[in-house]
Backbone:
């Protein structure tokens, strides 16, 4: 219990600074700026980046309500109200793809978090240095492979006629699998590939958090006779919780977007798999490829953004209710 | 002192932040207003400037930027150096060509035009967003005067009907080629397998069943119909449909062979607009679907063409596909490669029941001037030379003589000594200048006798199409078109490759989905536009 309290440096620091602010003599933004100008200056580049690349382009949202023309530009095109949204809701697939998007991404996020933590813990326990480095590198490697390349791999592994898997099965006289026309394989394959690609990256984040844990705690536990397993479950995992919550909340920000590349490259236009694997982005991409209508494309982006906002606010609210200090804002 | 610097610095960072925000905003507004001014200004300036001196003014050197589709061949820099040397002399301009890769066309092409970046001309075609981009105002409107003044050679060679065909909402935005492709879709077979199957001179795809069976039985490494995700996927289906009526290969509303929509019989002079529940479309589609299903179930079709990105004509050369699909132009390289490898081929044109193939539209290949081109007149002049001056045509299409191509004593094109098709750094047709005057071209030495024979017969095979030059403007029904596209991928494409359990049921589902996607609204719009087109033709 005591251990737990001490070992949340992040939360502790926050509480401290908040306390100081309340008891401070000067209040308001300007005095604060004067007092901490170096910090503000360090913050400036990232602020500028977000203003330019996130806040200003946000004005482009108006395109979702316009019939965009090159002549009129973003602010001079004709207003059409909610016309651009009609195709998405008329398609009869709005609910299906929204559900798919959320379910897939929730599954991805869960698997990714679980396996990243698992990998981080295992790597941190490995004592052989060369083996540690090697396994980390191998896990990180898929992160650098684009989905285009992955889709070529997967095709060569799994295709019906000369895929490696089916050749092996044929060798053992097992009937060939028709993976590209059977939906249920993909419910497993997609999360698997997602984890395969991202787990190296995720484990580094968690590994950093594990390395940051005070070694004295472990030493104390060893003296008290704790086993390795006990140390992991009673020290490492609880101390990873803040990092996990932050990363989960950040991950939720992408939940409505989700890996367009992956779905598009692996599934493409495959009608047989579509009901099971269509997400918002692929539906919009497929429908609008032929017309290249910026307004209609923006309307889908707008829909995703609104849903994302609701999800993030909701998740943050839940975290706040449960533990105020862990919330993002 | 110290306090002052601090305040100064924080103030500075604040100002910096604000000013950056403002310039970013300002930048946006500028490009917007430029875009609005450019087309009007350019249109009024052009004739005036030309009239003053009688001849276009070349005193200022300009750099023109053009975008084509595909990928730059390795030898591009050399060829461009040669082109620029000539252009500098002729019209005091230099040219920079950029490429939009095939995979990025749908996303990049509209973006380049909308972003207001430096671009003077782009490749344009009815199959490549011409109508939708014209609706968006991405292209500069072209008047007959502008073409007459700046493109005299082109003007002399072009059929005035082409200008009519290029109009969108009554305005012309494209410079269509003067030589629409004379091409026929073909199916290529291997002679050795034809012998195994005991097939002599087949003329229809439905006669090929024994051939497919022979491939399956005797050549385990070869897939009889090894279809790719883009070109081949609907092709055998289309060839089967063509046996029943003069099928255009794509619906009229989107022009996309991978989509379903409203169709017409190419050889029906009345040009009746048909849906998939109207005959002859319905019966022909069901016939084709049943045949494809039979072949798919027999294992003649690859199970997942959606993920296959290699065209059958390339797999055919490698011995991995039993049949190659293509047209008389793009199949040339594959045929030459087969000859190299000692594979004897049999080329079979895909024809309508009356034995005809549709004439290509002028809009199949062309160029458009970007709405915010800084130098539209000079761009037109450069294009006049590139498209219609024989020396330029050879340079841009075939490369440098002696390096990328050579001419034999009897006037045939060949490769220079020591250059093979693999080592040629500027293969013909590869650089994307598809809009040049192809009447200048000479026959190629690698053409086989059967290919030459077919090529010579093309003229007689081509039949005029009722809607030649018609392009559908989807502006009013774009939501419905977007939905049709989506329905097509999910419910139509599986039918075309035969991967459905029950053809009748699959068509019923497809039809239901088409109804809810708004096919009736599309039909009304297609009918309105086609009848206006036919009325204008009389």
Residues:
């Amino acid at each position: 219990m005591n251990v737990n309290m001490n070992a949340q440096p992040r939360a502790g620091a926050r509480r401290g600074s908040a306390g100081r602010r309340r008891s401070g003599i000067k209040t308001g933004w300007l005095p604060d700026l004067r007092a901490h100008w170096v910090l503000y200056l360090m913050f400036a580049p990232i602020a500028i980046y977000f203003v330019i690349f996130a806040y200003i382009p946000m004005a482009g949202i108006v395109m979702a309500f316009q019939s965009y023309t090159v002549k009129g530009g973003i602010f001079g095109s004709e207003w059409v109200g909610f016309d651009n949204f009609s195709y998405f809701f008329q398609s009869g697939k709005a609910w299906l793809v929204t559900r798919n998007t959320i379910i897939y991404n929730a599954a991805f996020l869960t698997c990714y978090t679980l396996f990243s933590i698992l990998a981080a813990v295992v790597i941190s326990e490995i004592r052989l240095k060369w083996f540690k480095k090697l396994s980390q590198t191998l896990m990180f490697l898929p992160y650098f492979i684009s989905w285009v390349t992955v889709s070529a791999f997967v095709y060569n592994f799994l295709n019906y006629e000369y895929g490696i898997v089916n050749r092996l099965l044929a060798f053992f006289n097992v009937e060939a699998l028709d993976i590209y026309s059977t939906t249920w394989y993909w419910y497993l394959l997609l999360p698997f590939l997602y984890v395969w690609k991202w787990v190296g990256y995720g484990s580094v984040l968690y590994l950093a958090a594990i390395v940051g844990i005070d070694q004295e705690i472990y030493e104390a536990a060893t003296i008290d006779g704790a086993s390795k397993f006990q140390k992991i479950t009673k020290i490492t995992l609880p101390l990873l919780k803040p990092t996990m919550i932050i990363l989960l909340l950040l991950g939720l920000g992408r939940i409505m977007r989700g890996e367009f590349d992956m779905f598009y490259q692996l599934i493409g236009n495959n009608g047989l798999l579509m009901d099971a694997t269509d997400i918002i982005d692929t539906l919009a991409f497929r429908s609008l490829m032929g017309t290249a209508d910026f307004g209609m494309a923006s309307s889908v982006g707008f829909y995703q953004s609104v849903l994302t906002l609701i999800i993030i606010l909701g998740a943050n609210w839940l975290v706040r209710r449960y533990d105020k200090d862990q919330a993002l804002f | 002192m110290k306090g002052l610097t601090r305040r100064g610095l924080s103030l500075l960072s604040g100002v910096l932040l604000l000013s950056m925000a403002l310039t970013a905003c300002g930048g946006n507004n500028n490009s917007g207003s430029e875009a609005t001014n450019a087309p009007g200004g350019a249109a009024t300036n052009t004739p005036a400037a030309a009239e003053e001196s009688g001849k276009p003014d070349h005193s200022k050197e300009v750099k023109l930027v053009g975008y084509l589709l595909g990928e730059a061949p390795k030898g591009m820099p050399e060829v461009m150096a040669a082109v620029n040397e000539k252009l500098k002399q002729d019209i005091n301009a230099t040219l920079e060509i950029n490429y939009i890769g095939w995979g990025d066309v749908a996303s990049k092409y509209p973006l380049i035009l909308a972003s207001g970046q430096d671009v003077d001309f782009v490749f344009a075609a009815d199959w490549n967003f011409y109508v939708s981009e014209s609706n968006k105002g991405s292209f500069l409107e072209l008047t007959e005067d502008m073409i007459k003044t700046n493109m005299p050679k082109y003007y002399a060679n072009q059929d005035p009907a082409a200008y009519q065909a290029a109009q969108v909402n009554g305005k012309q935005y494209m410079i269509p080629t003067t030589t629409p492709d004379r091409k026929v879709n073909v199916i290529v077979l291997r002679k050795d397998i034809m012998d195994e199957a005991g097939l002599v001179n087949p003329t229809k795809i439905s006669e090929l069943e024994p051939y497919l069976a022979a491939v399956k039985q005797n050549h385990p490494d070869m897939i009889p119909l090894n279809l790719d995700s883009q070109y081949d996927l609907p092709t055998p289906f289309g060839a089967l449909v063509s046996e029943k009526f003069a099928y255009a290969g794509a619906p009229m509303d989107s022009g996309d062979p991978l989509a379903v929509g409203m169709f017409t019989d190419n050889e029906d002079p009345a040009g009746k607009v048909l849906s998939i529940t109207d005959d002859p479309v319905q019966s022909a589609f069901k016939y084709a679907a049943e045949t494809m299903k039979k072949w798919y179930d027999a294992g003649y079709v690859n199970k997942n063409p959606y993920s296959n990105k290699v065209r059958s004509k390339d797999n055919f050369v490698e011995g991995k596909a039993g049949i190659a699909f293509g047209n008389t132009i793009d199949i040339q390289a594959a045929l030459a490669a087969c000859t190299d490898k000692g594979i004897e081929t049999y080329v079979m044109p895909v024809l309508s029941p009356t034995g005809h193939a549709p004439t290509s539209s002028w809009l199949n290949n062309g160029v458009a001037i970007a709405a915010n081109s800084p130098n539209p007149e000079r761009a037109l002049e450069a294009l006049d030379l590139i498209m219609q001056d024989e020396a330029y045509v050879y340079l841009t299409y075939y490369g440098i003589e002696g390096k990328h191509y050579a001419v034999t004593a009897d006037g045939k094109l060949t490769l220079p000594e020591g250059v093979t098709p693999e080592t040629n750094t500027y293969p013909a047709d590869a650089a994307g200048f598809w809009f040049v005057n192809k009447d200048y071209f000479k026959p190629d030495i690698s053409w086989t006798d059967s290919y030459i024979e077919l090529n010579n017969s093309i003229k007689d095979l081509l039949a005029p199409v009722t809607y030649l030059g018609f392009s559908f403007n989807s502006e009013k029904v774009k939501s419905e078109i977007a939905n049709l596209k989506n329905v097509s991928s999910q419910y139509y494409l599986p039918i075309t490759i035969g991967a459905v359990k029950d053809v009748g049921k699959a068509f019923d589902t497809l039809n239901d989905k088409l109804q809810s996607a708004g096919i009736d609204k599309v039909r009304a719009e297609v009918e309105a536009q086609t009848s206006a087109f036919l009325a204008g033709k009389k």
